[in-house]
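Purpose: get a first structural picture of the assembly so the mutagenesis plan has something to point at.
Setup: two entries, given in the order below. No constraints added.
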Amino acid sequence: MSPSALSTWLRSCLFAAVLALGLSLPGTVTAQGFGVYEQGTCVMARAGAAVAQGCGDGSSIYFNPAHIAGTDGVTASLGATMIDATGEFTYDYAVQPPYRGAEVDLENDPIPVPHAYVTYGLTDRIGLGLGTYVPFGLETNWPTRLSDGRYFDGAFEGFENRIQSIYVQPTVAYQVTPTLQVGGGPVLAISSVELNQLLDLSQQAVRNPQTGEPVPDPTSEAPSTPLRFSQLGIPFHTAFARSSLESSNDLGIGANIGLSYQATDRISFGARFTTPITVTYDGEADFTQIQTGLQVPADLTLNGQTLVPAGTPIDGLLQGQFSGGQLVSQDVETEITFPFQLVAGVSVQATESVLLLADYQLTGWSAFDEIPLEFETLPRQVREENYENTHAVRLGAEVDLSRTFTARLGYLYNTAAAPDEVVTPLLPESDRNQITIGFGWQPSDRTEVNVSYQALLQNDRRGRVRGALPNEPVTTDLNQGVYGFGANLFGTTLTFYL
Amino acid sequence: MTAPRLPHSLSAAAALLLALTVPLLSGCDDESLTAPEIQADLFNSYVALGNSITAGFQSGGINSQTQSASFAVRLAEQMQTPFGVPELATPGCPPPFEQFFNESGIPAPQRPSQTDSTTCALRSEQVPPRVNNVAVPNAEVIDITSNDTPSANPLTQFILGGQTQAQAALAANPTFATVWIGNNNVLGPALNGTANVTPPSEFGEQYTGMLDQLTSGGSLEGGVLIGVSNVAFTPFFSPGPVYAALEEQGQFPPNFDVASSCDTQDPGTGLTPLVPIDYGFGLIGQALQNPGQPVTLDCQAAGTPALTLNEVSTLAGTVQQYNAIIQQQAQQRGLAFFDPNDIFAALYTNDDDDPDPTNDLIPKFPDRDSDEPFGPFFSLDGIHPSAAAHRVVTNQLIGTINEQYGTSLQPIEAPDVPQAP
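Result (structure tokens, whole complex):
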């Protein structure tokens, strides 16, 4: 490596890393679960089919690190995918228009998801690289109120939810034989999470205003059973607080490895495995009281003495919870495992100008079984997710239209990670069909511009906007309506061959 | 990149495009994931507004068992639509009577041990995501749209949680509603021995305003407005002539006298003075306790709980005016109307050729030796319909709904009742 080339490569690496870390932009869901597969515009135009043959723009650091072997000089790519997602939840009772407030729209703004890669051909057989990309990201913004002013049920499950995980991956690849390449590298995951939701007063325990201890349920034979506000007639989903759980820049470690085998002049095979990465988050939970204006309907007595007289404002009873009780700002710890990805594929050079690709992907979403929340003061909570492993088939085609223009097409089908009973506002996903189209233009030997478009067509799916009540099983009986979701994705990547 | 061979490349691209888009023909909707079917779209969300009857109040109390017997619950079952009930925990709030008469035949309502009329076991721990039965005991028409009224009570919050009935109903985005309200506008004065009822014009304004608010949500597609019941058909009130006849038969203590003012009947309407059971039996008790002191039941005396013939006529006339208003509103709004007095009159006037007033379908005088002193169609307080009556009402409403909306709700098992006169 010449000093100037090394200097250029290092500068490019630094630039790419800073870009990814500085633009800590949240992603949104376009692949299974909350995966985001659009980590390079060229590959995006092929519907993500790239494990057997990469695009040569450095994105192989993610799609198959083995393809870094044998590259020439320095290649630097910088790009982003703009994801414009739309969605809605339609209550069952709104099957016929024009019921007001029955359809609730997702309020996501278009979200840019950046990627940056730099590769360097150290020798004829060894390639180096550094990439940053966002393979997992989730953002769902739901309104807290319906058009008629009532609270949206789904806001009690979550109304501003963000999960992102930026992967930074140094890579080395080796040409083992003229037909066999292997590559891989460690992955540093830099992740953030934010969950906002309304808290339901009906599920809260009534507390003794003098001691702060839960008031026992006078109707229960078990003395430790607390009296809940629902037993005072407080309706389900009565908002009394807004909670915000946030944690930023927590780290996890994993790896991404791949191999590629050229079976004939026209046919190649490839495979990639990205390990699961578990990130433990140390964040903060904040709670803001919402006034209910409600009163206690009847005297609450304990051991024959009036504990809370009828007419007592409930907001006053709750106030202590926010100033010195369980709902003060506090530390919270949680853990999320980003799943493994196993991809295998084939590419066929059908003609001199036509390349066909097909990938199969298995993603280990069963690792995302729950979101545990360990609070400093509040009792432990667990949000059951019970995701299932997913399968995807990606079909892509690339046609060289001229020396400088290339057209690409693709089709992708993937199954859903969320089981029928866990289709929630957090991730209202379903099986998806996606079609892609894109163009590459190489105006000079040193530059290339790729643009692509992807239409995400998600099947409508029944889902729920509330969690299970105490002693209520989480089943599809909780589903109250239908989620619709779709997205338009626009990708652009600029690549320099130095 | 390779050298251009455009025509060949384009044809290949077209073939590829075709191949890649064929899978899309698999469709994008999964019909198996659509909403569960209910009896008809009309019943997507059914709400019931009203008073103690709709709420399921029986025998002077209410709990989850009595609530589940409400006609509204039965109707929702036939509609196969989810129906959230604000369940009150056992023994109740207050607990229902276990018996009305003591061993001496004196009214002495007994609730479960260690409970009384102030006992409230609070709401059940199970909270429905939506409350569909928003009816509140003691509610009058004005209470549908306001909780700041004299008739609001602790059950108002226990059931509605700070909302009004109309607000709670709208929260369920109702497509169908039953509204049975107005009974307490008549019953309350009647129980106080007066005919000082809400003037019909005021009743009409309140009723119209209530319906305006209920329909403001825009989701309501149908419903039934149920008329106000005539208090004369409740066995809590006994006709004055029945007291006179029983006195004549020597059924009362010798020092208990029934004035001739009780033994009267309007020849045109058949109406008579009415004696509330607590008042009549209170006087009988006085006579028993003071054998040497004459005690007289006077159905014309002012200031007593007994309803004079004029008062009964006024109440009956007012009920007719109320129901005319309700029926008119139903017609104007394309809703169905059901007059409960048709069925209660049939039960009340059923002639069994038996002069004993205690064994009528609706007894004119309570059968103190029976487990059902007020008959099979009224609960142990003599005012609120029994579970059997709720079943009868359910089938009457099903017939009304099917006729109005062309639906096919199936009737439920219910006692046979005589045809309306």
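The first helix of chain B runs from residue 6 to 21.
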